[in-house]
Design brief:
31% of the residues lie in helices and 28% in strands. It is of the alpha+beta class and 380 residues long. The protein folds into two domains: 8-179 and 297-378, Zn peptidases (Aminopeptidase, 3-Layer(aba) Sandwich); 185-295, Alpha-Beta Plaits.
Length: 380
């Protein structure tokens, strides 16, 4: 790899290189690891004389952090993007053969979120190429495991001190300061097996689950009573249901899996307890709640320096500078919980993330590069 000049073509070429690397999260079919992207990042930054540090997250799955010193060594801003992608099953294009058509880059991860990562990498490289020393220390962190359980960003947060963070996700270059949290859990209803010719000798877990679902649906109607100005109400969805073994046996168990999106001010454990209390009060039903995944909400104050600087730069680029919220989560909430004021901004639309023809507008990638570059030079 030869150090390239910092041009918009440079960032598109870097994005193509990243898309070409399979980094499907190992939790999904045909998944590998993030190691290939981490290795690419290491070589990329080496060409510009930029120090890199590797953090072990899991065996063969590192975080990779590039560090550029600033004039004030006591201050730091972190640019973070995850290196893993969703799976490729069901894609109708070549997942790892990046192609530009009609001003769009196609390929798995092009939108979510290698476009943001490429923009951040090239922005840091451009500062070195142009001889700029940023006002404070800059980190560009490629993290592992965002698409499954956030273990990469949790590792990054261990002992982290920073004055702000920008997390790359496909926000269509909107300034996101609020995101919903997420609680996913399994609800198991226990019945009693019996021969279907004498169902009175058993307890039908599916019938019991029907009572549970009715109560949950009634309760979900109350979620609209509490809303957030940027995020709207909490939401609830039953995504799967399984139960029984065969048609002539009274089923002894039935299981549903639930996704609950929560608002800032709510804690995941409080949501789980709410559901435990609901099922405890259903007569004759034996059920339990089994947590699957928890993610906290994000709400960064509009007066935070990271928000104010980002808004000014977006306005200077002719982009929408007004802060907004989104219903999905990201690594930003974990950085925020670690005491680092964080925002989410990146090229691409969330509607294309994980899609069968995932793509990102090349013009947005170029604008993201310019936004990240200006932020690195302005955040003091």
């Amino acid at each position: 790899m030869v150090a390239a000049q910092p041009t918009s073509h440079f960032v598109i070429d870097t994005l193509a290189d990243l898309v070409h690397i399979n980094s499907v999260n190992p939790a999904y079919r045909d998944g590998v690891s993030e190691a290939g992207v981490a290795e690419y990042m290491r070589h990329f930054f080496h060409e510009y004389g930029i120090e890199t540090v590797e953090q072990t997250v899991l065996t063969g799955r590192p975080n990779l952090i590039a560090k550029l010193p600033g004039r004030d060594p006591s201050r730091r801003v972190v640019f973070e993007a995850h290196m893993d992608t969703a799976g490729v099953e069901g894609m109708s294009i070549q997942a790892f053969e990046p192609e530009v058509r009609g001003g769009k880059m196609y390929g798995r991860g092009s939108c979510d979120t290698k476009a943001g990562l490429a923009g951040m990498m090239c922005a840091m490289a451009s500062l070195v190429q142009e001889g700029h020393t940023p006002p404070c220390e800059i980190w560009v962190a490629g993290t592992a495991d965002e698409e499954f359980s956030y273990r990469g960003v949790l590792r990054l947060c261990e002992g982290l001190r920073a004055n702000g963070a920008i997390v790359a996700e496909p926000t269509s270059l909107r300034l996101v300061i609020a995101t919903k949290g997420c609680v996913r859990f399994r609800m198991v209803v226990h019945g009693k097996a019996a021969h279907s010719s004498k169902p009175q000798l058993g307890v039908n877990a599916i019938s019991q689950m029907a009572k549970v679902v009715s109560v949950l649906e009634q309760d979900a109607g109350s979620l609209a009573d509490k809303t957030h100005p940027l995020l709207g109400p909490e939401t609830f969805n039953i995504g799967t249901i399984t139960g029984g073994t065969q048609v002539n046996v009274v089923p002894e168990s039935c299981v549903i899996e639930i996704d609950h999106r929560l608002l800032p001010g709510e804690e995941p454990e409080g949501i789980l307890q709410r559901y435990r209390d609901l099922i405890r009060n259903i007569p004759g039903v034996r059920a339990e709640v089994q947590p699957l995944l928890q993610d906290i909400p994000l709400e960064t104050p509009t007066e935070s320096a990271v928000v104010l600087v980002a808004s000014e730069i977006l306005a200077s680029l002719g982009l929408d500078e007004k802060p907004c919220g989104v219903p999905y989560g990201s690594d930003a909430s974990k950085l925020s919980r670690a005491g680092v004021p964080s925002i989410v901004i990146g090229p691409g639309s969330i509607d294309e993330a994980h899609g069968p023809t995932e793509f990102v507008e090349c013009a947005e990638v170029e604008q993201a590069f310019e936004f990240y570059r200006k932020f690195m030079l302005a955040f003091a």
